[in-house]
Amino acid sequence: MNLVIVDYKAGNVQSVMFALERLGINATLSCDFETIKSADKVIFPGVGEASSAMTQLKSRNLDKLLPTLEQPFFGVCLGMQLLCQHSEEGNTDLLGIIPLPVKRIETDLKVPHMGWNQLENLQSPLFVGIKEQDFVYYVHSYYVPMSEYTIAQTSYPEPFSAALHYKNFYAAQFHPEKSGPAGSQILKNFLAL
Amino acid sequence: MLTKRIIPCLDIKDGRTVKGIQFENIRDAGDPVELAKWYAEQGADELVFLDITATNEERKTFAELVRDIARHIDIPFTVGGGISSVADVEVLLMAGADKVSINSSAIRNPELVRELADRFGSQCVTVAIDTKYTEVSGWKVYTRAGTIETEWATIAWAKKVVELGAGEILLTSMNNDGTKAGFALDITKAVSEAVSVPVIASGGAGNMQHFADAFNSAHADAALAASLFHFRELGIPELKRFLKLQGVDIRI
């Protein structure tokens, strides 16, 4: 399988590469238009800040390319948020693929939402072998609200979208590459889609 | 629900794990990658790797080791020690670290916290605060591996770094570190209540009840220990079962 990880210097791509390596998969790291377009599957990692990530994407013309992709696509953490319409983080216009907003976590609890929290209401082949209440690792200060595209939820304290599915685009707010055996299973499930 | 984190800390010198007793009398506790894998399997929620000689001896950080760790473990980890620039952090994050911890360099140049948060996001910027209580000064912040007292009161500094963009605080009480007499509950609670970001309690863990106290009394979001885990005096599965019985939200 020709698996490409989108390289835009804004994400922690190395961790995703290593997680795939542990599954015996060699992925190609690329920001090249043709390489990404011809991939069988695409993973779009990301940590960091939305507006600087968008700047990096635009400088590589990836803001034009990514919405046109038709193969199975997996956005992780900031990579999930970037697929949406608009973020309150830096008042940033995002890629606009999934018609949902990204909002700041407003709570008396600690922000960032950092640590291991539970998945609930799992509704996708992405979660084959994953049980309700299984733990995954989160680090984020912004979130995507519950929606018709939500395929798993987590609460902090209110429920939010732990994962999304829209057309060929899958996305997770948590970090499968850092979520132990459960995370590896979710990556495997994406590869099997 | 979000669970409290148990974090083994691996102090690194020359690519090996060490743990200082009150920052002195260093003992060798093994190979960092092997220990890290073992901790991940045991149920550690995160790991911290501190290059303890980096600040004192101006050593370059340990990107190669970080890469090796990232290659082998599937839980998050933070690296610290001698980080003084955006470029240092970029190297470590690109090597696979999830967060960086900065300490003395934040004291020297508080704007570094803001630069890191702007460039990489607050979620990967942990500010480590070494604090010590004295009758004369109260709780103050210490720098350069705990050798120099700064002008900063601990609470004021914690608030300052969060305002600058820190996403987490790693609070080590030097009075308690190495004593196994328990975490410094008063200052941990005070810092946790003063800031909006997660606080890791560090220094003094000696038994399971100390962890329960850090979470239930001091409201820490995470608790860190080193020698207690490295020398197998306390197992993480056993600790987590105990905490769960104590009503702490914990991942098992």
UniProtKB/TrEMBL annotation, chain A:
Q: Which GO terms describe its molecular function?
A: glutaminase activity; imidazoleglycerol-phosphate synthase activity; lyase activity
| tRNA processing found in the keyword field | no
Q: Per the UniProt entry, what is one GO biological process? A: L-histidine biosynthetic process
Subcellular location(s) per record: Cytoplasm
Which parts of the sequence belong to the Glutamine amidotransferase domain?
4-191
Instruction: Report the catalytic activity.
Output: L-glutamine + H2O = L-glutamate + NH4(+); 5-[(5-phospho-1-deoxy-D-ribulos-1-ylimino)methylamino]-1-(5-phospho-beta-D-ribosyl)imidazole-4-carboxamide + L-glutamine = D-erythro-1-(imidazol-4-yl)glycerol 3-phosphate + 5-amino-1-(5-phospho-beta-D-ribosyl)imidazole-4-carboxamide + L-glutamate + H(+)
Q: In which pathway does it act?
A: Amino-acid biosynthesis; L-histidine biosynthesis; L-histidine from 5-phospho-alpha-D-ribose 1-diphosphate: step 5/9
Enzyme Commission number(s) of this protein: 4.3.2.10, 3.5.1.2
Principal location listed in the UniProt entry: cytoplasm
Q: Where is the active site?
A: C77 (nucleophile), H175, E177
Q: Which GO terms describe its cellular component?
A: cytoplasm
InterPro entries in alphabetical order: Class_I_gatase-like, GATASE, Imidazole-glycPsynth_HisH
Keyword line:
Amino-acid biosynthesis, Cytoplasm, Glutamine amidotransferase, Histidine biosynthesis, Hydrolase, Lyase
A Pfam match is: GATase
> Its domain of life?
Bacteria
What is the role of the protein in this entry? IGPS catalyzes the conversion of PRFAR and glutamine to IGP, AICAR and glutamate. The HisH subunit catalyzes the hydrolysis of glutamine to glutamate and ammonia as part of the synthesis of IGP and AICAR. The resulting ammonia molecule is channeled to the active site of HisF.
Q: Which NCBIfam families match?
A: IMP_synth_hisH
Oligomeric state and interaction partners are given as: Heterodimer of HisH and HisF.
What's the protein here called?
A: Imidazole glycerol phosphate synthase subunit HisH
Native source organism of the sequence: Pontibacter fetidus
TrEMBL record, chain B:
Q: In which pathway does it act?
A: Amino-acid biosynthesis; L-histidine biosynthesis; L-histidine from 5-phospho-alpha-D-ribose 1-diphosphate: step 5/9
Q: Name one GO molecular function term.
A: lyase activity
Which keywords appear in this protein's UniProt record, sorted alphabetically?
Amino-acid biosynthesis, Cytoplasm, Histidine biosynthesis, Lyase
Compartment list = Cytoplasm
Active-site residues (renumbered): D11, D130
Keyword Amino-acid biosynthesis: yes or no? yes
Query: Which CDD domains does the entry link to?
Result: HisF (cd04731)
Q: Which residues form the signal peptide?
A: none
Report the catalytic activity: 5-[(5-phospho-1-deoxy-D-ribulos-1-ylimino)methylamino]-1-(5-phospho-beta-D-ribosyl)imidazole-4-carboxamide + L-glutamine = D-erythro-1-(imidazol-4-yl)glycerol 3-phosphate + 5-amino-1-(5-phospho-beta-D-ribosyl)imidazole-4-carboxamide + L-glutamate + H(+)
Q: Which GO terms describe its cellular component?
A: cytoplasm
Task: Quote the Pfam families the UniProt record gives.
Answer: His_biosynth (PF00977)
Broad EC category: lyase
NCBIfam families listed in its UniProt record: hisF
What name goes with this protein? Imidazole glycerol phosphate synthase subunit HisF
